[in-house]
Amino acid sequence: MTASTPPITLTTNVASLRGVGPQRAAALRRMGIRCVADLLLHLPHRYERELGERSVDEASEAVTPVHGAGATLTVRGEILTLRQVQGRRTRTEATLFDGTGTLLLTWFNAPWLRGKLHPGMTIRAWGKAKRRGDYLQLVNPRWEPIRIEEEVKPRTDRLRPIYPASEEMSSSVLEDLVQQVLEPALANLPDHLHPEYRDQAALPELAAAYRMVHAPANEDEVAFGRRRLAFDELLMLQLGVMLKRAHRRRAYRAPSLKRTPQIDQRIRRRFPFPLTESQNAVIEEIVADVGREGPMNRLLQGDVGSGKTVVALYAMLLAVAAGHQAALMAPTEVLAEQHDATIRAMLAGSRVRMESLTGALPAAARRSIQQRLREGELDLVIGTHSLLAEKVKFKSLALAVVDEQHRFGVEQRAVLRVKSTEPDLVAHTLVMTATPIPRTLSLTVFGDLDVSTIRGLPPGRAPIATRVVSPERCDEVYAYLARRIAQGEQAYIVVPVIDETESGLTAVDTHLKRLAEGHFRGRRLAAMHGRLKKDERDEVMRRFREGDIDVLVATTVIEVGVDVPNASIMVIEQADRFGLAQLHQLRGRVGRGSKHSICVLIGDPVTDEGKQRLEAIAASNDGFAIAEKDLEIRGPGELFGTRQSGLPPFRVAQLPRDLPLLQMARRDASAWIEADPELASPRDALLRKRLLKAYGQALGLGDVA
Ligand code: ADP
Ligand code: MG
Predict the structure, then answer these.
(1) Scanning 129, 230, 263, 422, which has its CA 20 to 30 A from the CA of 114?
(2) DSSP-derived 3-state class of residue 12
(3) How large is the average pLDDT for residues 30-59?
């Protein structure tokens, strides 16, 4: 290094490190490592015990079965003999003598060693030790020459970090790089957690934590350091979530929506059925929330078919009764159209003025709806993403409902809230999901939402029988289907979206044609997929709902929300291509009436995971159980919702493993923000800065800062 080399800091580009050329820089980039901070956050995923330098004699005792295959040994000595052995794999063998004994060094396929090693030379060699007869052997050891005149200190025992590596970037290269940057980068790394808090929470200092995970003295240090780094991530996110929540409570008010017995009666009269106990309980939670001026931010979760829509409608009508407006946003046109149909039917003859605003609407109609929303001439609007458009403004939006919220990002949900033209007035928000959120996640990503849960299904539902059938037997399946359809039942047949065939037909059309000419000759079939125009889709759904279509051959556009009680049969082709949660959603389209429903999964899973998915879906009808199973199969790395949430993934923390840490973070963050709602204490300036950098954008903390 020359004097002009700039010092290594957290922001130093890894390309400027010693030993990193363009190729390695690119390989690092592909692993997401650009600067020194990234390198420090690239944590070892395990450690190997590396025994320090020992005499051959001592080493013979040290390499016991206790250390097993993981033990790495370091010895130094003189090379006595060296030879090449030809064979299936050419190997180079050397004997190393250190005065106490002899050790065998073996390298496979390394002919170049001949020119570098020679008898009489003193080297230090380290690698995995094995016993071979009476000898200890190191296979493919690393080594370095030792010049006698130099004083080279013996190595001591250590834990060697093993890093997640790629084909182009080995763990040992990463190790060298980390060792290169560790001290200079940590020398000036200030800690964002103040000492009193660290003491109380038994956390090491930040720089020390990095040292402990990258160059640990022992296993305890590994755990101690990792705990601090994992906790940091969880704490930051919790603080961010709480900061936002505190800000919202303080800075915004929403219309307080009061319910009277008359209003309650008037709303319930609109529903064609009495609500279940669970629906009523959830409504009480919502009513309590919207009665206050602090904006509601509530998640309503309930399994597919549990009846979330009427609960939302109840809340929307409460807003309308109070003279305000309400909006319902759905992720697909099909679903928006259906909500329009069911809600319109329930509101027939009432004075509620409602319209649907979807992307498919002609410009003039859209403009007219927008104008009426602005002027308060519409009470209720249903729509898709098009509700988020800048031009859409409300005179007085009191409630925004987001259906199937997992299809939307955090920011999108937030946009609706602030659509009122009245400044400072925000809407109460109710987001709904049929994909239950595992507890671990509800504490993180959705940490700023209050959760209501509808348990169970409305009465009178016959259970759905689920069968997994291999493709060879699909003829039997369709023959059976044909018989049930002959008796007046309706069916969905779902095919995965795959590339168009040569003839230009979609997978749906091709399958439909085959069925129409085969098992379902004489039956009324229709196709349903994303490429149909809105009025075509409307027409198909209307006819299916009215029983004019027997079989709907569809893609997953029918996955969310579609509700046709007479449809009691579902066949899912190539079911192993779908995710577990998705299969459960799809299946939820049947079993909505009193007929005995069946869901047939045709599939021939090739992977273990595929097999597990089909078994899991066949074994349970309970969305919550399935969500847990999904988590188990996919592992915590892919927690549902993290990607959609737009949050950066955790780099150190692992859920559910770190659940206790998460709970601690949540508790502490809550107390912290309660005491200092803006995180404004000068002591926490750095914490605040790092927090905004990490989560500011994803959590929409812009106006907090
Ligand atoms: P999801 O929770 O999946 O959105 P929906 O709101 O679409 O479910 O409701 C599913 C079906 O159950 C609809 O046909 C709806 O009319 C019906 N339903 C909802 N609540 C009740 C109830 N209390 N009694 C009977 N049927 C109900
Ligand atoms: Mg729904």
Answers:
(1) 129
(2) coil
(3) 90
Question: Which atom of ligand 1 is found nearest the CA of 311?
Answer: 6
Backbone angles phi, psi at 472, to 5 degrees: -60, -25
Any atom of ligand 1 within 6 Å of the Cβ of 307: yes
Cis peptide upstream of residue 656 (ω within 30 degrees of 0): yes
Ligand 1 atom nearest residue 275's Cα: 23
Pocket of ligand 1 contains residue 305 by CB under 6 Å: yes
Centroid of ligand 2 to alpha carbon of 357 (angstroms):
18
Instruction: Report the residue among 267, 268, 271, 273 best suited for mutation to probe ligand 1: largest number of ligand atoms under 8 A from its CB.
Output: 273
Ligand 1 close to Cβ of residue 112 (< 6 A): no
Phi, psi of 65 (to 5 degrees): -60, -20
pLDDT, tens only, 424-449: 789 999 999 887 666 656 666 666 77
Q: Is residue 360 within 8 Å of 383, Cβ to Cβ?
A: no
Tokens linked to 355: 């319209």
Residue 640 has pLDDT above 50, yes or no: no
Does the beta carbon of 458 lie inside 6 Å of ligand 1?
yes
Which ligand is in closest contact with the Cα of 278? 1
Q: Does the global pTM surpass 0.85? A: no
Ligand 1 center from residue 593 Cα (angstroms):
10
Distance (Å, whole) CA 685 – CA 687: 5
| Cα(23)–Cα(159) distance, integer angstroms | 29
Distances (CA, A) of 374 to 324, 351, 390, 473: 12, 19, 12, 57
Q: How far is Cα 38 from Cα 373, in angstroms, rounded to an integer?
A: 48
CA of 397 to the centre of ligand 2 (A): 22
Q: Whose CA is nearest to atom 12 of ligand 1?
A: 307
Q: Closest by alpha carbon to 258, among 323, 322, 326?
A: 322
Q: How far is CA 114 from CA 128, 138, 670, in A?
A: 21, 17, 65
Q: For tokens 């199973």, what's the residue?
A: 629
**C-alpha span between 686 and 691 (Å, rounded):** 8
User: Position 641: which residue type?
Assistant: G
User: In this structure, what DSSP letter does residue 13 have?
Assistant: B
Cα 273 to middle of ligand 1, angstroms: 9
| Alpha carbon distance 316, 293 (integer Å) | 16
- 431 phi/psi in degrees, rounded to 5: -110, 140
d(CA 696, CA 239): 11
Among 309, 541, 559, the mutation site with the greatest number of ligand 1 atoms within 8 A of its Cβ is 309
Pocket test for ligand 1, best of 267, 299, 308, 310 (most atoms within 8 A of CB): 310
Residue 641 confidence (pLDDT) above 80: no
Taking the centre of ligand 2 as the mean of its atom positions, its distance from the CA of residue 367, in whole angstroms, is 28
How far is residue 378's CA from residue 328's CA, in Å, rounded to a whole number? 13
The reply to whether ligand 1 has any atom less than 6 angstroms from the CB of 592 is yes
Distance (angstroms) between ligand 1 centre and the Cα of 324 equals 26
| Cβ proximity of 598 and 570 under 8 Å | yes
Catalogue the E-assigned strands of 410-495. 428-433, 450-454, 464-469, 490-494
Greater pLDDT, 378 or 303: 378
Quick: pLDDT tens for 219-232.
Answer: 999 999 999 999 99
Give dist(CA 320, CA 263) in Å, integer: 10
* Nearest protein Cα to ligand 1, atom 27: 458
Amino acid (1-letter code) at residue 364 = A
Q: Which ligand is nearest to the CA of 588?
A: 1
Backbone angles phi, psi at 464, to 5 degrees: -95, 130
Residues 122-131 have pLDDT tens digits of 999 988 888 7
| Burial class (CB within 10 angstroms; exposed 0-12, middle 13-18, buried 19+) of 329 | buried
DSSP string, 594-643: SS-EEEEEE----SHHHHHHHHHHHH---HHHHHHHHHHHH-GGG-TTHH
pLDDT of residue 535: 80
